[in-house]
Amino acid sequence: MTVASALHTSELVGRFSKPQGFGDATLRSPRTDSIELLGGIPDPEVLPVAELTAATERVLLRSGVPALQYSRTEGITELREWIAAREGVSADRIIVTNGGFHGLSLAIQALINPGDLVAVDNPIFPLFLRGLELATTNILPVPVGAAGLDVDALEGQLRAGVRPKALYTVPDFHNPTQGSLSRPDRQRLVELAAQYGFVLLADNPYRELYFGTESASYREFNDSENVIHINTFTKTLGPGLRLGWLVVPNWLRSDISALRSRQDSHSSTLIQSIVAEALTHEETLFDATLDKARATYRNRAQVLATALETETQGALDIELPNGGLFLWPKIVSDRIDPQKLSESARSHGVDYQQGAFFPSGPGTEAARHLRLSFGHVSEENLKEGARRIGLAFKDQG
Amino acid sequence: MTVASALHTSELVGRFSKPQGFGDATLRSPRTDSIELLGGIPDPEVLPVAELTAATERVLLRSGVPALQYSRTEGITELREWIAAREGVSADRIIVTNGGFHGLSLAIQALINPGDLVAVDNPIFPLFLRGLELATTNILPVPVGAAGLDVDALEGQLRAGVRPKALYTVPDFHNPTQGSLSRPDRQRLVELAAQYGFVLLADNPYRELYFGTESASYREFNDSENVIHINTFTKTLGPGLRLGWLVVPNWLRSDISALRSRQDSHSSTLIQSIVAEALTHEETLFDATLDKARATYRNRAQVLATALETETQGALDIELPNGGLFLWPKIVSDRIDPQKLSESARSHGVDYQQGAFFPSGPGTEAARHLRLSFGHVSEENLKEGARRIGLAFKDQG
């Protein structure tokens, strides 16, 4: 076999960082009975599996089997119209994607030049920073507090003359910190974007998974020409579909399409057809699915929080989230080393994400937190996971 | 609504050309009874629809419904192993993609820097040039003859000191010219790639659709560290799946994965699971599907060629292809204007791709050709389409 010594990859892939921490498989417990509280994974029991199966049969029975043929870059009409009605925008502003992360990657590539500054959540969903490497690594971390992105801090930077090209934030049930932006802060963000000429990337995968009252409005995002609003069926109908959407401002529609058409043409017509058929065949399906999801995840959050209170005996400061798929408790005592705690927990057979994986810059207490996912974990295993975390604290204590 | 006057797209999307000709919807006949001989579309009757439906039911019944969950960037194990066995390589060299075009786009972005020279087929599958705009527009057109890429011409350029970073060609049933590279030419291409330090992008979507004897070996491609071998289920199981694969050289595996993971994470787990289940549940399914496809397309090629002979009364020089989904007849008389012929054909209710859309540089006779697709068109419509093309010739005559 020829040794390809003269061959080189592109500068683009040469610039990619080596992933560390978050998502690193070497940080998983080798125990086969390990309880994994790692990812934002929906529970299979909550997904409308029977309805998706029945929808598949129906779409594959259609004359000419259009679900197996090419379709438009922007997505099939039935799906775009369903999403558009839900978002309250015209269907030509909807671009169907292969999930939320794909939407982010398209937005990044359509907007950001090498070296451009991008303002980002701090702490942040770490995979965004990996996706951002498609264009730049030049970031402005903006603090995230109990009510989401600190808009005052952002405004201070903007007034001081800092000019990001875009701002990335998760407005509802922030990953990892679980806060949600208030309605006035949404309005201010959109106004700042218009005033200072940047694009807000509003990444909203958890929006529908509220436990109490509906999350704050997203009208502000969809009404602005300065926002790309990113969403996905990942947390509601299943990550394995790889199906999401963008609400794009009018001035970006054709450029995002041109980019998409040069990368992978369009999302699977079959997947789009199955989901559109399931959602339109039975009008109540999506909301019924969401109701079930909300009840399940609200209950699991409560079960995990209660079990952790008991098992760690006050070693964690736990705030119940109002939605989403994560708990973000803080280690109370400074004497506990979070890294050692995590290793000990792993040896006891429970894996979670260390808070230290989430800062995008200095100034956070994220390293003192644990990110615990509960969406796909049974009550029994949540209790057992909490017990094992309790054992880990005892080891450190 | 805010006017986003200060906002700009990235230089990347700003460099994209405005698509003209190939794939331009304005060139379609407004007649509703128009016969479309435009795209390389498989016949729905040939696709294993019932088997895909049954496979979907089975995968969605599995405990925990893994088909609806996240999976690995490179693809699910069952599918990679099935493909790897067919390609005769180890499974870790297989990267599952969202179809052949997606494989090309990943290869382009992983290898090519802005301004890099890329050698390409002339005439060429025009969408490749659009995908190449993700990295460069600097191309070296290499003539394609009756036996595929002219390897002598390429070697002459290389000896003269031209140094492309990559070479793009369709080795089997070339699109649009229908030739196939001989086995010695495949070997020479791979040797030239190693000698001169470029990567061969071997784009092989039609490989399995041979009408007579099997197409020439692809062993040369898979044995070389200088080749990315691109394939897809698009022409065999359906374009709407958006499912294909790359056979990548070992030195590129991790970089292609890193790129893919930053763009859309992974191909739909559900689509991968359905296809893997269908292909492995019944071992003979894929070959039986191919046998049916080959017989159907061979017959349709013959029907269309015969009808054109009759209807155009010698105005076209028609060569029967040995595989694939296209006829590439040449207009015999220089007095016929191909553009006017196409317009006239459109007014008679038949649409095809003008040969003029396919050159990547000067020196071809492509503009004197018609590219006629026959895969998804019934015998009756092929005959009627030929009759309408005959009428168009009479108009010009």
TrEMBL record, chains A, B:
Pfam families: Aminotran_1_2. GO terms for molecular function: pyridoxal phosphate binding; transaminase activity. GO terms for biological process: alpha-amino acid metabolic process. Its cofactor is pyridoxal 5'-phosphate. Gene3D superfamilies: Aspartate Aminotransferase, domain 1, Type I PLP-dependent aspartate aminotransferase-like (Major domain). Keywords: Aminotransferase, Pyridoxal phosphate, Transferase. Coiled coil: none annotated. It comes from the Bacteria. Residues 50-389 form the Aminotransferase class I/classII large domain. PANTHER family: AMINOTRANSFERASE, KYNURENINE_ALPHA-AMINOADIPATE AMINOTRANSFERASE, MITOCHONDRIAL. This is PLP-dependent aminotransferase family protein.
